[in-house]
Amino acid sequence: MAMLEVENIHVYYGSIHAVKGVSFQVNEGEIVTLIGANGAGKSTVLNTVSGLLHPRTGSVRFMDQDLKGVAPHKVVERGLAQVPEGRRIFLQMTVEENLEMGAYTQPGSAVAPGMEDVYKRFPRLEERRRQVAGTLSGGEQQMLAMGRALMSRPKLLMLDEPSMGLAPLLVEQIFDIIRELHAAGTTILLVEQNAQAALSVADRAYVLETGRISLSGTGAELMASDQVRRAYLGG
Prior knowledge:
Elements: E1 2-13, E2 16-27, E3 31-35, H1 42-49, E4 57-62, E5 65-66, H2 72-77, E6 80-83, H3 95-102, H4 111-121, H5 123-127, H6 138-150, E7 156-160, H7 168-183, E8 187-192, H8 195-201, E9 204-209, E10 212-218, H9 219-224, H10 226-232
Parallel strand pairs: 3-8, 3-9, 6-7, 7-8
Antiparallel strand pairs: 1-2, 1-4, 4-5, 9-10
């Protein structure tokens, strides 16, 4: 079943045509990744799906419902959560307060169990639950951004460049967590510059170049593609 269907979207920043006729789908239970260079339009696509941007033409459907004109907070209520590029946590709030903010779509009775689930998945956050988020390391902030999104109990989790700025060991840890979330049944749409890491976890993948999809296939197929190896894997 297609959980998310993006059909021929064209997105502009003023007169700049940033996304040019992109179409793809994410089926329930999959990890789908969009890879590409800086400026290819990956984050623009995610921000369009989550309602932060609006396509001039084309459509976005989630759980068979059109998202046209749906406000971003209402998109979250429908079960779609985004972990933004650069984390964008609330730096002056504690870890716990950040997680509580992530649960704003949930009934009060769901906050404590949700937090318990997040702490099981990210034990380091539990150790630092009273700590001000701005004092966390980059890797801890990324975990907090992911934990905050999980507090809304999403059907589809969108991750925008989760490895950005992290040391290789932390990148490995973040991708281990992505695998664990997937194994637990979370459907994931992943935008990532680290093509090797992204393709290694992806069921299916799309290559975005200058606002258009230039290649698609399984993660393994794209990993084996000469074009992808030359452009993104250093092969």
